[in-house]
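Friendly challenge for the regulars: who can give me the structure tokens for this chain first? No prize, just bragging rights.
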Amino acid sequence: MTAPVTKLLVANRGEIARRVFRTARAMGISTVAVFSDADADAPFVREADESVHLPGVTPGDTYLRGDLVVAAAQRAGADAVHPGYGFLSESAAFARAVIAAGLTWVGPPPDAIETMGSKLAAKALMRKADVPTLPWATDPADAADVGFPLLVKASAGGGGRGMRLVRDPAELDEAVAAARREAGSAFGDDTIFLERYVDAPRHVEIQVFADTHGNVVSLFERECSIQRRHQKIVEESPSPAVDDDLRRRMGDAAVAAARAVGYVGAGTVEFVLTLAGAEAEFAFLEMNTRLQVEHPVTELVTGLDLVRLQLLVARGEPLPAEVLTASLTGSAIEVRLYAEDAREGFLPATGTLRSFDIDADVAGASIRVDAGVESGSVISPYYDAMLAKVIVHAPSRTEAAAALGSALRRARIHGVTTNRDLLVRILGHVEFLAGATDTAFLERHDPATLAAPLLDAAGQRLHAVAAAVARQALNRETAPVLGQLPSGWRNNPSRQQELQLRTDGADTTIAYSLDRAGVLTAAVDGQPLDVTLDSASPVEVVLTVDGVRRRCLVAISADVIDVDSPLGSSSYVVVPRFPDVGDDVAAGSLVAPMPGSVVRVLVETGAVVETGQPLVVLEAMKMEHTVSAPGGGTISEIRVQAGQQVEAGTVLVVVEEAAVEETADAD
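First reply, four minutes later:
Bragging rights claimed.
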């Protein structure tokens, strides 16, 4: 018996909502979005045929209100609900509520969600199904039986949230408390457990699919070993570490896991894989009872649309023949582009995207961009920091890595700090290209170094000149008189124009002029630059240095100038000639690095603190971030309290620097 799916509500937001809408439209299914206050103008809301506003205490908790989502589906006349991933996608209670309302649930049976949602129940079931598992415990008092190092993990979710690595038993209590808070915020369930931590394994998962007609298949593996904060940032299929025999063994184990739980629909069985010894060994981590963030790599190497398959199975149809006989073709690699500063401990970034343009035109490769944002989108502190997934499919892994790195290099992304440069360097790293990565990759290789700007010092000088010339061209273009004069032209050629620009906290002074023949003379911070100006406009400047001509694309918005060239990307703020000194904060002030909510204040006024001591814990984008003392001193002021919402730059506490006592050397 098939269930009709004519109007589909997606109980999610951003990139995954847009992804599901795309397939639904192709299948002739109408779409409904739900949205919070913060998402009212988001692209996914505009793209849906209909949308329903969800009220919430804060925008961060809106998508966790299953009752509101079901009511929205009924109000819009939807006959099916797709949960996406995250939020309520692995909530058995939500699945049951959808079904009880007479709607088609585009997901696995609630009982399967419940069993696998309890990571411990899942491990017990896997043991019965002869799927290898790691030691675990539910009670922190049993940590010694699990063994150190261990992971404190959220039972209800994934994505690195509610997870803490503990190597020292003395750190266990704080790790458990922090994981509970984070899990409760992200998933609405603060249940945690302990699991043995395997140092530097590979993380390999198997995509499974099942229907209601007894078919259960493995759609091969995805390698997800490169992670930060236990959250994947690079995924690929096939894995360079998996041969045909290992692929068969892992696939058989994943199918056994799915059959053991009576699974239906799309799911992922995750394993840790170690290659030490004569034979590779793998152990069950968990089963994600939903579509995974990284599902596009499987789609590209198999040629299957997994969302389409979800909808077919939800309607009661059997898996098509092409699924039962699927094979691998070529290589696909996906990277997650985040709004975050990898040089500052992956600190989430907020703001407005002045530009977001990723060119998908690379010969010989298929490039796909699944994005939740566009130019002009506001990146808020309420949700996950992922902007987009960029995926490449090519005949070989080497070609895929090269094409993906090229697409990222040429992307025009400005307005918020991203991990783009980190991703480019990972894709070109000798270990990655050799297929020798594991979960400790970013422990061996400093993320701050990998995330350093791709644009070197010489490129920065060239971009600074391009920014100055483009700004002057805009001034001439909009000048009420003598607008026909060339940019940078001076009546007195002995006097150069000067412009001061600020980037990454440092100021740069550009002095430049054009003589009567149109020859550019330029210096950056007093250092002459041998450069020829080929053409200039407010949006494009072409410069030649050492015989090499380069085209710089420029975007000017008020006093912000963005520049992109084959050398990299840069952004500048024009420094006003007469700055407002009132903008400075008092010495010793520690400010919020991003908008967020104060979770805890760990000190009191008058407390003496040491360098690195945690002072305030903030929550932003469903992750906790600790603000620590940069040096020793005394807390002279505390300006925030737990539960308070703060903006970026808000003063949290003020630390008076400890006085240094001078002592005389004995004679």
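Residues 457-574 form a domain with the Glycoprotein, Type 4 Pilin fold (CATH 3.30.700.30). The mean pLDDT is 90. Your move, everyone else.
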